[in-house]
Design goal:
Aminopeptidase; 204 residues; two-stranded antiparallel sheet; 11 strands; alpha+beta; 9-stranded mixed sheet
Length: 204
């Protein structure tokens, strides 16, 4: 991917122009006390991150909703460059026969993809973007917040790529179907790790 004319050339359809607007608030509005699910599409607030040199910075959060109902959250610079994004699907489920007697809620947020375009040495790196830290963490915290808001009790599941396993384990996720017989790429957020994820790097 390359930056051309101050905008990203993406592989999927570009964001409709009506959503690329200035936020409807002044100053720095974070998501600390916000219900993300109730917000309309567009810029819904900001998240605090760090630049590669350690300097604190804020990125805009763009919310989009797909035709199938999947939600996409993008972290953008003031110029509109997409630094990272996550696509999530809310899966509301009833306990199955095998879940009888379990107190775990089977409903969860499934992470379709998570990408950091600013991190060098990764498959999604976009040449020319300034590097930022905490991008993946902030996107996963948004997914966790949506899980809580949707009645999924903070549950998150995903299928990890080989190069992402260390990151997911670092922020608290665990293998759902451990080896040697299971799929090592299936991850979930254990109950004991939910609060610590929400507090990483100061939280949303």
């Amino acid at each position: 991917m390359k930056i051309q004319n101050n905008s990203l050339i993406k592989l999927y359809s570009p964001v409709p122009k009506k959503f690329v607007t200035q936020p409807a608030f002044k100053g720095v509005q974070t998501l600390t006390q916000c219900n993300i699910g109730s917000m309309p599409e567009g810029i819904i607030g900001k998240v605090r991150v760090k630049k590669a040199n350690g300097e604190e910075a804020y990125l805009d959060i763009m919310k989009l909703v797909g035709i199938s109902g999947d939600e996409i959250y993008q972290l953008r610079t003031k110029m509109g460059h997409i630094i990272g994004e996550i696509e999530i699907r809310i899966k509301k489920l009833l306990p199955s026969y095998f879940d009888l007697g379990s107190t775990e809620n089977p409903s969860h947020i499934f992470v379709e993809f998570l990408r950091n375009y600013s991190k060098k040495g990764t498959p999604y790196h976009v040449e020319g973007l300034e590097e930022y830290k905490n991008i993946g963490t902030r996107l996963m915290q948004i997914a966790q917040r949506r899980s809580d808001e949707s009645g999924c009790e903070g549950n998150i599941k995903l299928i990890s790529k080989d190069g992402s396993m260390d990151f997911y384990e670092k922020i608290g996720l665990a293998k759902e179907d451990p080896e040697p017989w299971g799929d090592p790429h299936l991850y979930y957020l254990p109950t004991f790790a939910k609060e610590s994820l929400s507090r990483l790097s100061g939280g949303l």
